[in-house]
Amino acid sequence: MAAHPVPDQTPDPNEKLVKVFDSEAESEAMVVKGLLDSAGIDSDLKSGTWVQDTFPGLGGMVILVREEDAEKARQTIAESQQVGAAAEDDDPTEELPAAE
Hints:
Blueprint: E1 17-23, H1 26-38, E2 43-47, E3 61-66, H2 70-89
């Protein structure tokens, strides 16, 4: 049985790419890349040192998307962060009032 190739989900480097996310933590950047991939947005995860010419002073990890996908990507990331913040507000481990 022939293996089916997995489609490459990185934008063509010849296209205009824009930064939509950066993080010092590689794990956080990988989670966001997975979020964008699951939303059908092709993205590229690069080391911040690789893009020093484009974004001077930037370290850590950077996520780049096609210019036409940037707004959708930023919205997807923002919505995810809002859901995460709401989940933190609903912390079941909060201290309960003492019984009298």
